[in-house]
């Protein structure tokens, strides 16, 4: 091993206190500095943090941004989410591939550039988009892809590819990104002018129990999608036994088509920290962690600077706002490209320096979460809402929205519409009204809640967005009549096959079987009983998978069968000769016919 | 009322499943009260004589004749059962699926340690059905209605399944009958 590598690893480990729970930060630092975490590097890291090499390898092999083999100094990640594909990501990939002279998945011979696909990077509103190392490039065209390739080949840095900065904090000197916020509709809870830190300052004048009871009577529910009552979660965490407790913010929005947290982190980060501090006050915790998805690394320096500013302003750290004994600090845990880490127990695993495997529940994180301590995990938007709720009050908040779903919901709208972006609506907005606002025309289908939500057709456009009707974590993808429903289903299944952690068989194998069948149907080899087969398989995967990924991954199939059955029926046909359409007797006899020098007399 | 008919066949199987069927012992008398056997090795009827309620298929498809027979079963039977692991998964015969056909032939007729073939002939009479590129489970070739696992499925399993089907009751096999570890 070279002395340089040795020093890099030693420094990375020491800066994390040789703590095995900080393994993610260590391997990410090594990957960033060396282009790979080689077997030698793993050995040394293992020795430094006192674990086995296989513990390190299990982490490196799990996350898509980490690799054992050396990648190029510049890694171009082309987003191949459905929306990006609709906007021409395939052609973009082709342009890169041709200009750079490498295929997707390869590294150039001189080791400078790697080209890969990556699932949704949270830029569906400005697709097609790519990441060049940590730099996001949006609204690409084939020509732009070619000129970017040429620039990189001639030695340009990824940072130099950004010519114009986006609006708001995207142009901050610590961000300097071309990403745009695209805030189209502002609501009354989050995208609103308000007195900074009003919620936090009010909270500390109350007893923690009383703050929780305000949140409970506001009826705030988790904004990640599952909709668990926030007040109740905090009450459980507060009541749980443990000297040390944690407040974790889930900023790992990986659901294809969602990007609201990106905008909240960029523009409302103080409000998020305010909400987290209130959370810390409520449950009796002095430590917060923000799990930031690896795709949003371009925001990390900006966010860390904000954290240190808050510390200086006594909004974080010891005796917050002068309140003796109220200490709360936040660290940012960066991810490395794994959708499953948006699942709260997988996210906790990742924070602990492990593979992003979900944990078995119960015990729930409120009892036994991060490092086996009581932990509350909440969505970015949930924390922001808390700050506003405490600032105003529960009565003010609970009349917004519907009876069962109070407050506003931020939607990330993308796909076939003229105004993709961020929409903050009161809960209860009709799908048709939202489509009108977004400038969607000739809409055939809307995906509510991303692929793990449901795909609805025209007959459901009168339904409303709320927990009791169409629940969503915020992802809304619009498809017009030119789109092939089965192709969309196929793309999303490919996504789940890729992102399944592989721990349990129904999810690891079931999703592959679902994908195979959809592909057969697309090839015209489907027959009527396939619908029953798909439905049975979907229900097996849903019922028997261990975590939310497998429990929802069949949703594109089930909801498209329910709402677009005619699309399936149009291509399913019974084979006249009684054989399965997927069985090709002629092809299966070719080898024997050649070997034996005679033709079949039967077929 | 005319008794429903049952047909059986062994494709790429070892006849073990049929042996297991015979293991129902004296219950075969009861079975005869319930059904008539049509095309089957049990009674040596070679061709279907009419519509059958149930077709029991042992073994997967390793050659074109298997495919032909299976298609014939699909055409003439209301319900088809994949009986035993070979019908369901390909079983032992499917062990050749990862080996090119040419190598299988060479090993079987020329190179195998026990082969005695002084004239070095690869059997190739036109009466011999052509071998498929691999062994297929039955449901890959035609639609199968039920899978009865086991190597072989026990006589009790076969009996319970058949009686349920013939008396129009749901096939509800007790756990002991489909537990194999």
How is this structure best described in words?
The complex is a heterodimer of chains A (603) and B (181). Helix content of chain A is 41%, strand content 12%. Chain A is of the alpha/beta class and 603 residues long. Chain A folds into five domains: 58 residues, no CATH class; 90 residues, Glutaredoxin, CATH 3.40.30.10; 214 residues, 3-Layer(aba) Sandwich (Rossmann fold); 76 residues, Ubiquitin-like (UB roll) (Roll), CATH 3.10.20.600; 86 residues, NADH-ubiquinone oxidoreductase 51kDa subunit, iron-sulphur binding domain (de novo design (two linked rop proteins), Up-down Bundle). In chain A, the strands form three sheets. A six-stranded mixed beta sheet of chain A has the order 5-11-10-14-12-13. The mean pLDDT of chain A is 95. Chain B is of the alpha/beta class. Chain B has one domain: NADH:ubiquinone oxidoreductase-like, 20kDa subunit (Rossmann fold, 3-Layer(aba) Sandwich). In chain B, the strands form two sheets. Chain B has a five-stranded parallel beta sheet with strand order 2-1-3-5-7, sandwiched between helices. Chain B has a two-stranded antiparallel sheet with strand order 4-6. Chain B is globular. The mean pLDDT of chain B is 93. At the A-B interface, α24 of A face α3, α5, β6 and α6 of B.
């Amino acid at each position: 091993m070279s002395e340089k590598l040795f020093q890099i690893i030693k420094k990375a480990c020491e800066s994390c206190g040789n703590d095995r729970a900080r393994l993610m930060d260590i391997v990410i630092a090594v990957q960033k500095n060396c282009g790979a975490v080689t077997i030698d590097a793993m050995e040394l890291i293992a020795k430094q943090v006192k674990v086995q090499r296989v513990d390190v390898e299990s982490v490196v092999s799990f996350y898509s941004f980490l690799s054992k083999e050396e990648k190029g100094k510049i890694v171009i990640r082309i987003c191949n989410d459905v929306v990006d594909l609709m906007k021409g990501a395939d052609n973009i990939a082709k342009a890169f591939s041709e200009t750079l002279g490498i295929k997707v998945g390869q590294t150039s011979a001189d080791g400078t550039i790697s080209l890969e696909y990556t699932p949704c990077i949270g830029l569906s509103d400005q697709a097609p988009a790519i990441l060049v190392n940590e730099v996001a490039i949006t609204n690409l065209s084939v020509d732009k892809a070619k000129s970017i390739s040429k620039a990189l080949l001639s030695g340009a840095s990824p940072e130099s590819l950004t010519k114009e900065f986006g609006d708001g904090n995207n142009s901050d000197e610590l961000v300097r990104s071309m990403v745009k916020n695209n805030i189209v509709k502002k609501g009354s809870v989050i995208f609103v002018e308000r007195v900074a830190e009003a919620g936090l300052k009010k909270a500390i004048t109350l007893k923690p129990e009383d703050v929780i009871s305000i949140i409970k009577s506001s009826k705030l529910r988790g904004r990640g999608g599952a909709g668990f009552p926030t007040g109740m979660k905090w009450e459980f965490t507060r009541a749980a036994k443990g000297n040390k407790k944690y407040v974790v913010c889930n900023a790992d929005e990986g659901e294809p088509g969602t990007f609201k947290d990106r905008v909240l982190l960029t523009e409302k980060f103080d409000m998020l920290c305010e909400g987290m501090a209130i959370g810390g006050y409520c449950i009796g915790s002095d430590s917060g962690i923000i799990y930031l998805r690896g795709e949003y690394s371009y925001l990390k320096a900006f966010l860390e600077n904000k954290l240190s500013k808050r510390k200086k302003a006594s909004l974080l750290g010891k005796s917050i706002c002068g309140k003796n004994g109220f200490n709360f600090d936040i660290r940012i845990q960066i991810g490395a490209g794994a959708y499953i880490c948006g699942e709260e127990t997988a996210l906790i695993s990742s924070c602990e320096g492990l593979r992003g495997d979900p944990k078995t529940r119960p015990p729930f994180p409120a009892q036994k979460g991060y490092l086996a301590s009581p932990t509350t995990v909440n969505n970015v938007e949930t924390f922001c809402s808390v700050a506003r709720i405490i600032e105003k009050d529960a009565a003010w908040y609970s009349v917004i929205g519907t009876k069962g779903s109070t407050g506003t919901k931020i939607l990330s709208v993308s796909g076939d519409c003229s105004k993709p972006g961020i929409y903050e609506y009161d809960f209860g907005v009709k799908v048709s009204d939202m489509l009108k606002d977004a400038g969607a025309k000739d809409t055939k289908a809307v995906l509510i809640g991303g692929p793990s939500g449901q795909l609805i057709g025209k007959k459901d456009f009168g339904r409303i967005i709320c927990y009791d009707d169409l629940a969503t974590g915020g992802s809304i993808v619009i498809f017009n009549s030119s789109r092939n429903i089965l192709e969309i289903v196929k793309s999303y299944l490919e996504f789940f096959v890729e992102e399944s952690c592989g721990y349990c068989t129904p999810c690891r194998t079931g999703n592959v079987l679902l994908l195979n069948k959809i592909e057969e149907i697309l090839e015209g080899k489907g027959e009527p009983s396939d619908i029953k087969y798909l439905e049975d398989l979907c229900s097996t995967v849903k019922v028997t998978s261990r975590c939310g990924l497998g429990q929802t991954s069949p949703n594109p199939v089930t909801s498209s069968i329910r709402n677009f059955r005619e699309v399936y029926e149009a291509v399913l046909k019974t084979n006249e000769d009684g054989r399965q359409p997927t069985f090709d007797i002629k092809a299966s006899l070719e080898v024997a016919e050649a070997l034996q020098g005679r033709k079949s007399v039967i077929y | 009322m005319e008794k429903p008919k049952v047909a059986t066949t062994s494709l790429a199987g070892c006849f073990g499943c049929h042996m297991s069927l015979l293991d129902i012992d004296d219950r075969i008398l009861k079975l005869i009260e319930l059904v008539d056997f049509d095309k089957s090795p049990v009674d040596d009827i070679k061709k279907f004589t009419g519509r059958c309620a149930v077709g029991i298929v042992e073994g997967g498809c390793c050659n074109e004749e298997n495919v032909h027979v299976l298609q014939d079963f699909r055409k003439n039977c209301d319900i088809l059962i994949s009986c035993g692991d070979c019908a369901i998964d390909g079983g032992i015969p499917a062990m050749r699926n990862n080996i090119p056909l040419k190598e299988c032939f060479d090993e079987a007729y020329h190179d195998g340690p026990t082969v005695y073939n002084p004239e070095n002939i690869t059997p190739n009479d036109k009466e011999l059905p052509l071998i498929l590129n691999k062994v297929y489970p039955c449901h890959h070739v035609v639609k199968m209605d039920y899978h009865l696992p086991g190597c072989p499925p026990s006589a009790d399993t076969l009996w319970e399944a058949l009686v349920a089907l013939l008396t129009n009751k749901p096939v509800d096999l007790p756990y002991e009958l489909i537990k194999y570890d």
